[in-house]
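Field notebook, page 116. I keep forgetting to write these up properly, so this time I am using the form the group agreed on. The chain and the ligand, heme C, are recorded exactly as supplied. Prediction of the bound pose follows.
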Amino acid sequence: MKLLHKTLLATGALLAAGCSDPNPPETLPADLAAGKQVVETTCIACHGQGLNGAPILGNPKMWAKRLPQGEDTLVSHAINGYAYDMMPPRGGNPDLSDTQVRNAVRYMMSLVQPET
Ligand code: HEC
């Protein structure tokens, strides 16, 4: 009983959070929602405006050559750094876990490729 109650509360909180979003991203899966958070707090510093040539979020042209490398390669570049660390390891935030970086990359990819 107690557990069920908790689950209902958590669901309610999620729904409430979704409703307060002025631009509801039609219920993102949990990993993408977590990735969005990382992107909007860390990666956006460069990927928002294209600093140093960073591929801009949601710009399909700028991602066209990068996407074919596949998720694993992009994630590894994001974790380890890329292009002489113009793309710094973990976006310059060593506190991010591998999973957090992967979710962030997945979210970035989701902005420029249609759902399969
Ligand atoms: C200090 C600026 C900066 C920050 C912060 C940053 N990036 Fe980047 N990122 C870049 C630049 C610049 C490039 C393009 C490098 C190149 O190819 O010349 C890049 C490229 C990438 C690529 C493409 C790599 C490839 O193989 O083509 C991915 C994926 C990526 N970044 C993910 C992330 C993620 C995830 C975060 C946040 C955790 C992040 N970046 C934060 C600057 C940044």
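OBSERVATIONS:
- DSSP finds five helices and no strands in the chain.
- The chain has a mean pLDDT of 86.
FOLLOW-UP: compare against the apo run.
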